[in-house]
Design a protein that fits this description.
The structure is a homodimer. By secondary structure, chain A is an alpha/beta fold. In chain A, about 45% of the residues lie in helices and about 15% in strands. Chain A has three domains: about 45 residues, 434 Repressor (Amino-terminal Domain) (Orthogonal Bundle), CATH 1.10.260.40; about 130 residues, Response regulator (Rossmann fold, 3-Layer(aba) Sandwich), CATH 3.40.50; about 130 residues, Rossmann fold (3-Layer(aba) Sandwich), CATH 3.40.50. The first copy, chain A, has twelve helices and twelve strands. In chain A, helix 5 packs parallel to helix 12, helix 8 runs parallel beside helix 9 and helix 10 packs across helix 11. The longest helix of chain A is centred in the last third of the chain and has 17 residues. The mean pLDDT of chain A is about 90. The interface between A and B is large, with 58 and 59 residues. The structure holds a DNA duplex (16 and 16 nucleotides).
Chain lengths: ~350, ~350
Amino acid sequence: MKKGQVTITDLAKELNVSPSTISRALNNSPFISEERKKVIMDLAKKMNYSPNQLALSLLNKRTKILGVVVPEITSYYFSTAINGIQDKVGSSGYKLMISQSNESFEEEIRLMEAMALVRVDGFLISPSSNTTTFDHFEKIKSSGFPLVVFDRDCLGFEADKVVVDDYSGAFQAVEYLVKTGCKRIAHIGGAASLSTTQHRKMGYLDALAKNNVSIVDELIINGEDSSSESGVTCMLSLLNLEVIPDAVFCYNDAIAIGAMSVIRERGIQIPEEISLVGFDDEPYSSYFKPSLTSVWQPIYDLGLLSAKILLDNLMADNESSSYRYEVLKPELMIRESSKKLPI
Amino acid sequence: MKKGQVTITDLAKELNVSPSTISRALNNSPFISEERKKVIMDLAKKMNYSPNQLALSLLNKRTKILGVVVPEITSYYFSTAINGIQDKVGSSGYKLMISQSNESFEEEIRLMEAMALVRVDGFLISPSSNTTTFDHFEKIKSSGFPLVVFDRDCLGFEADKVVVDDYSGAFQAVEYLVKTGCKRIAHIGGAASLSTTQHRKMGYLDALAKNNVSIVDELIINGEDSSSESGVTCMLSLLNLEVIPDAVFCYNDAIAIGAMSVIRERGIQIPEEISLVGFDDEPYSSYFKPSLTSVWQPIYDLGLLSAKILLDNLMADNESSSYRYEVLKPELMIRESSKKLPI
DNA sequence: CTGTTAGCGCTTTCAG
DNA sequence: CTGAAAGCGCTAACAG
């Protein structure tokens, strides 16, 4: 920030009036003569005056900045959520301070503390996969910051939350696989601590159970993380089984893509021999060969709604008694990597 | 921001000392007795005091916030650059205010003005594809904000800049195609106004010229944008030519992926009948079938270096006379979608 | 209609 | 060593 910024007192001196008069003109208060207002406005423009938000924030105790913390920004998933957030807040004059925790619990704390110091007006948080205690959230909350948790749930922590119904998405996907005749359906999971990992696995298990397909332990693998590399590794071990699966439901598209490359290399046909289903419906997924069946998530809307709830809280500054818990519905996008339903 | 934040005066009242004493203790000034300091520090911790950065910023004329504007956040490319930026500034205590212009010139102006009001300490800008005049940059600069332009060059605007040598990347790629025996090499371009589009096309043209391959107008197509959809459309029209190309150099991977799907659908072999090369080397590109030959860009480093330059400017507050112009080198990643070099 | 005063939270002279 | 006072840029209450 440059020292030479024109201030309200500069204008005041220039015109030999008091700063308050300038202030009134600038905020077009009714208690000022039209001619004076005009003179002042003209001078302000001429001298390239712009109000110092810092001073205003100090006065109003409101920065109009929202703090956003996501695990990683370099993913289609979270960047799309941010997109939704930005589209929502943009029109209301709020700015975003965005940071990524890189899935680190300590970094998440550090970032949130830094944002609290800057006095952001509120927080939009998607917790890191290593966040299992929520003292830092509690602390932020009890300091009076409104806080909305999105995408990843925090069991045991009370707050406004917006999540996707992972369970339902997984259930749909796996039930579809069953209906298309698959009997040995494997699952490659994501990072163990994530609520999404758990919910998707639950959906998988319940879909099998409900459809009387036996649950086979060796067909369930938990990846290290949610990367394509993990997909490669896990798929390799699935293909080393005595009897290989006839379908694989993957935690996400990245894993599915890794798995697909391994399956293809072995000369195994998709979906004839193995059906493959991902999760997230990333933009490229439909361009793969075969195109990937995947569970689409309303992730843009997730961001939008989270931001809306935060803004609502900010407007209605009364402490609302209950928290909102919004669950958005995902949708199965059927493509070539899975078989067609029998007629 | 909650009203109830503990301030330095609260502490002062509590202990019946003056605010300045508290301030001195908190900043461990030498002019204060150890015992007092300890008492104050303890109370501060107990009352959960945290300094108000707003007040400090107002005083120091420094917010320790950097403004970042990118065309879109939902792309692997820019989010990786932001990644680099954040990794660089994180350790230095700077925070990032990030916004996307959505390739809109007006939005870019709006965002930068908003950030200027917040008094960010400096700007990191990658201009939108519709930004062809730079008055807003000049204005920001002349208001005293340091500014670094990255990834997309602005001809006619002087500032610190960090870009990738698109020309060289394109040249490498196309020369490689020539050397592997391709003779009818097509090019699908990106958004016309972008410096990167122009530079990549130049590289393409010069590589052809230098290697005595004739330049055929009908083989050069400018896409509407840089999406896979555009790749589909453009590739379709290339395949409608009397004589189809034996290679396609695409502006980016997204276009190449779209093109690939069309080529495959027609039953044309890649790379035997048509070689395909992209640009950006997105993470999925190596998982496509065939895996995509692409020009890798040091985009993370681009972010890192841009941030470094901005921070350098911020440290050395003297107006340095000359601007830095850094050009990073891309690298061709050869995969299955292009032929092997003859031995 | 306009100027004076006070104060947001903090640091930094300047006097003790 | 410590307190009082001034000021960062701005607004709002209070006198005119």
